[in-house]
Amino acid sequence: MKFYSSILTSMSAGRSTRQNVRMLLRFMLVLTAMVVAYSAIFHFLMAWEGREYSWVTGVYWTLTVMSTLGFGDITFTHDIGRVFSIVVLLSGVVFMLVLLPFAFIKFLFAPWMEAEARRRTPRELPANTRDHVIMTAYDDVTAALIERLITYERDYVVILENPEQAGLLSDLGIRAAVGNIDDPQTFRNMRVNNAVLIVATNSDEMNTNIAFTVRELNETVSIVTTADSANSVDILTMAGSTKVVEVADLLGRSFANWTMCGYFQANIIGRFGELVIAETPVINTPLVGQTVAESNLRQRTGVTIVGMWERGRAVVPTPDTEITKNTVILIAGTEGQIETYDEVFSLYQMFRYADDPVIVIGGGRVGTAIAKRLQERSVPYLIVEKAQRKGADPNTVLGDAADLDTLKKAWIEKAPAVLITTHNDATNIYLTKYCRSLRPDLQIISRANQDRNVSTLHRAGADFVMSYPLLGVDAIFSFFMHQDAIMLVEGITLFRVTAPRSLAGLTLARSGIRQNTGCSVVAIRSEGKLIINPDPLEIIREGSEMIVIGTFENERKFLRTFPKK
Fold it and tell me: Is the pTM value of this prediction over 0.85?
């Protein structure tokens, strides 16, 4: 009922709609007058022929003749009556079979559909809309961001210039609105003054325009823009962007950080005050084959394994979880403890392939970022490119990476790793399978441009897969949540909560947090003191702050099991 009433309200709001309704009513009055007149003439002619019928029968005869049904149970016997029947029939064809459907479609059905379309893809949000995220494009990054916002029950809207595309998204359950993203009125209609974040993932030029447009209306709202070119960062900042995300650069650094050669260090990905979270692959270290308990990392280095990334699957480990060569572990500790871990385990990876170059397939922005990071680590590399680029890296091998001769020129027989960075997932899957068939022992890291291809790349033989949209979403969402939540890897989040009253006075071991929710407490702040990797016998005090790690589902279970009030 709410659905229909909202459409009727929308239909009755416009001036043209009211005019349409008046026109339809006039037509119906004319049609009704014709039926009444024909029924009266029917009675007169039937009386002239010596027959009597009720008024209901007269209306019945008129409607059957005008609608061309003509049951034939009531007919005239004289020619004058038959001529009258022909007149009624012809007028019925014109009014009931032609004009009535046209009037219904034009004055009722079409406005109804327009009202329904406006409801699905509005050009203006309700006046009471607030604390929402406004996105100016729908792409892989914003699609993943929408899923994240829905998980955290945050309101959002996507602005699209094409009404048809907006309608399709609405049919999929995505809140979309229609408007020109460079028009200030569009952002007024989207209640920009009540929004908490603007996310622009268009071209660098359009993002600059959007930032200027929004800043004219609101000087304080946070604006996050993506940048395809490093040269655009300063321009976007000057235009008003609060944060500029270089997804290609993030992707390139992640590729290089997970490449196992040269001087290798754990990559710090999050901080909560003194608490540091880092990620590191364990391939070639003694940790491979051990369980979390057997690794004894807490006693050896002070860090704790708080999460794992196992061939595209996020895991919050238990003491019995096994560490494999394909595992990327998330470790928590102080900065000094992370350095201790590096001192102990980087020796197993340090200069393992001192003279053999890493192969980077694709010399675009991602490939360039990888090369820059590898240079910082003094790791040799060769970039495979099909065509010569202007200002290309001198360490470039020209040719098709699917051609064995090209790969031989890039030292495929001795390369410690292949990093596949093309924009086409089908190409990445093919090259991953091809390289794996050539070198079963090779470390392969591949790029996924769409989330649905992550698992396929793992099945093709990739040791690690870097998701372009998810890296962008992690950067945007971590900024949006400020320090209340940090995305560590896809599927695992670090979040901060005030200790619920139901847990006050209990030790961590007795709290049932891990058993009931799957989450782990990595730090507790109480009375101004931060306890990192607390002992299971640590008592939870009322009002203390807990830093907890878990998957999205684990986090939802925690918030349901231990509500704030």
Answer: no
Beta bridge partners of 549: 494, 520
State the CATH number of the domain containing residue 140.
3.40.50.720
Q: Tell me the per-residue pLDDT of 313-343, one tens digit each, with 9 for 90 and over.
A: 667 788 888 998 878 888 888 889 999 998 8
Copy the structure tokens of residue 73: 């149970």
DSSP letters along 419-456, please?
Answer: EE--S-HHHHHHHHHHHHHH-TT-EEEEEESSGGGHHH
Angle at 107 between CA 106 and CA 113, to 5 degrees: 75
DSSP annotation of 318 reads: -
441 within 8 A of 469, measured Cβ to Cβ? no
22 and 109, same domain (yes or no):
yes
Residue 355, judged by CB atoms within 10 A of its CB (0-12, 13-18, 19+), counts as exposed
Please tell me whether residues 343 and 380 are part of one structural domain: no
CA distance 229 to 255: 19
Tens-place pLDDT, residues 408-455: 999 999 898 999 999 899 999 999 999 999 999 888 999 998 878 888
Contact 287, 299 (CB under 8 A): no
**CA angle, 62 then 63 then 65, to 5°:** 70
Nearest to 354 by CA among 380, 374, 382, 381: 380
Considering the domain architecture, whether residues 110 and 32 belong to the same structural domain is answered as yes
Q: Confirm if 350 and 263 have CB atoms less than 8 A apart.
A: yes
- Tell me how many domains the chain contains: 5
For residue 81, the cross-strand partners are: none
Q: How far is CA 172 from CA 34, 165, 169, 409, in A?
A: 47, 11, 5, 48
Give the separation between CA 491 and CA 312, rounded to whole angstroms.
10
Residue 155 carries which side chain, given as an amino acid letter? D
What's the CATH code of the domain at 338? 3.30.70.1450
**∠ CA 174-176-181, rounded to 5°:** 140
